[in-house]
Write a structure and sequence with these properties.
21% strand; 4-stranded mixed β-sheet; 4 strands; globular; Glutaredoxin; alpha+beta
């Protein structure tokens, strides 16, 4: 890893509501993806946004994605994790309203 690249973690909620809405498949899609070297994927406990499940949080930049399907993962990996541009239409609207509506 290049020292100028910060380590990033993709937290994929694996709690009740997210699991019921397909979070296991999201986790598997992230794990199977061609991720940058500075990115790790972690199954997480509840992220506290159950009404918008399934949820993914990317730290340290605090990007929150919601209502995802496995089909969304390749675009998030390429556009966000490789190119540094969040996928606006999949961002959590309450957390990222400044980004979505600006």
């Amino acid at each position: 890893m290049n020292s100028s690249q910060k380590q990033r973690t993709v937290l994929v909620c694996q709690n009740c509501t997210c699991l019921a809405r397909g979070a296991k498949a999201l986790l598997e899609a992230f794990q199977a993806a061609d991720l940058p070297d500075n990115v790790e994927v972690v199954a997480s406990d509840c992220l506290g946004q159950c009404n918008m499940a399934p949820n993914v949080r990317i730290i340290p930049e605090e990007t929150w994605y919601c209502r995802l399907s496995p089909e969304d993962i390749p675009r998030i990996v390429q556009q966000h994790l490789h190119e540094g541009k969040p996928v606006a239409e999949k961002l959590h609207p309450r957390i990222h309203s400044y980004y979505i509506f600006s």
